[in-house]
């Protein structure tokens, strides 16, 4: 996905990685969390590695080894990762072209030369960028000058957060769902409603425009007037001259 502007893209990914890596307080000092976009390359960071160690093993899950390092030799195990992993600087695990199912808690086990074992846990979460939503107008029903609106932004099979905005302000959390179901009156309608899809790596949105008392459209009335003016203004003097 980053083929054309390799360098800024790489810088961005690194930046993203650094921002998204933080120790979680609940699971001890050695647990890290990394978020990545599918298709990118990721290195799982390790800090406070002992100065001297004999053996070092990276695991995908507690019972699946990925690779082992011992006296300068790296052994790759037969796993989904063969051909896409390497040991980076500081013995961190670098995974090429991560996929959603690479999401896991990775374990690094280190045998020090004093014979003790130490363990690091790193949680990797891989996400696809969210798709572009399209608001579906499920209902616009006018009753006594009130307008019942039902807008859907649902995306199947995605772990996504939905945020609805009226004009540019988010609705209260109680109304945040894949479907927005509201009643508006002449004193509290908004000129546009936006649905934003987001996950930890991306966000996209779609907007519909409201015309009172109870009409929704894909473009705003204001935009129409502006277009009309741009088209008509040069024509009007022409009309006056004839
Ligand atoms: C491991 O590699 C480093 C640098 O390449 C070297 O200095 C060191 O002597 C090697 N150690 C062993 C045990 O081969
Ligand atoms: C992830 O999914 C791909 C295909 O989508 C499959 O080939 C691979 O074995 C899976 N990896 C793991 C670790 O389950
Ligand atoms: C989405 O989920 C439904 C049921 O949860 C399943 O039947 C369907 O095959 C899934 N579609 C995709 C594209 O994964
Ligand atoms: C607009 O006002 C009416 C009447 O007070 C209320 O029932 C409705 O929930 C309000 N709509 C919004 C979107 O706040
Ligand atoms: C949705 O939002 C909650 C709260 O901000 C967050 O913890 C969660 O990770 C988000 N989920 C996704 C898929 O973005
Ligand atoms: C919707 O997306 C556009 C660009 O894609 C962005 O400028 C705007 O801030 C977004 N709006 C909301 C409410 O997230």
UniProtKB/TrEMBL annotation:
Please list which residues make up the signal peptide.
1-26
Domain Ig-like span(s) in chain numbering: 133-211
Q: Which GO cellular component terms, listed alphabetically, does the Swiss-Prot or TrEMBL entry include?
A: external side of plasma membrane; membrane raft
Q: What residues form the membrane-spanning segments?
A: 221-241
Keyword annotations for this protein, in alphabetical order, are: Glycoprotein, Membrane, Signal, Transmembrane, Transmembrane helix
InterPro entries reported for this sequence: CD2/SLAM_rcpt (IPR015631), Ig-like_dom (IPR007110), Ig-like_dom_sf (IPR036179), Ig-like_fold (IPR013783), Ig_V-set (IPR013106)
Question: What Gene3D superfamilies does UniProt report for this protein, alphabetically?
Answer: Immunoglobulins
One example GO MF annotation = receptor ligand activity
The biological processes this protein is annotated with in GO are: natural killer cell activation; T cell activation
Subcellular location(s) per record = Membrane
What PANTHER family does UniProt report for this protein, alphabetically?
CD48 ANTIGEN (PTHR12080:SF134), SIGNALING LYMPHOCYTIC ACTIVATION MOLECULE (PTHR12080)
Listed name of the protein: CD48 antigen
| Native source organism of the sequence | Mustela putorius furo
Question: Lineage of the native species?
Answer: Eukaryota, Metazoa, Chordata, Craniata, Vertebrata
């Amino acid at each position: 996905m980053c083929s054309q502007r390799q360098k800024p893209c790489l810088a961005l990914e690194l930046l993203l990685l650094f921002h998204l890596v933080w120790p979680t307080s609940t699971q001890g000092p050695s647990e890290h969390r990394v978020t990545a976009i599918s298709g990118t390359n990721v290195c799982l960071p390790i800090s406070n590695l002992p100065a001297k160690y004999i053996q070092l093993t990276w695991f995908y899950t507690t019972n699946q080894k990925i690779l082992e390092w011992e006296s300068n030799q790296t052994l790759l195990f037969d796993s989904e990762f063969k051909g896409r992993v390497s040991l980076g600087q500081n013995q961190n695990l670098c995974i090429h072209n991560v996929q959603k199912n690479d999401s896991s808690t990775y374990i690094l086990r280190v045998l020090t030369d004093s014979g003790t074992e130490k363990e690091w846990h790193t949680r990797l979460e891989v996400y696809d960028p969210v798709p572009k939503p399209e608001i579906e107008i499920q209902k616009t029903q006018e009753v006594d000058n009130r307008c019942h609106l039902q807008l859907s932004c649902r995306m199947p099979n995605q772990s996504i957060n939905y945020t609805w905005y009226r004009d540019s302000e988010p609705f209260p959390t109680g109304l945040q769902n894949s479907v927005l179901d509201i009643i508006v009156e002449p004193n509290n309608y908004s000129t546009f409603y936006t649905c934003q899809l987001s996950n930890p790596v991306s966000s996209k949105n779609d907007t519909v425009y409201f015309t009172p008392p109870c009409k929704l459209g894909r473009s705003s009335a204001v935009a129409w007037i502006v277009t009309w003016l741009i088209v008509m203004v040069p024509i009007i003097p022409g009309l006056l001259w004839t």
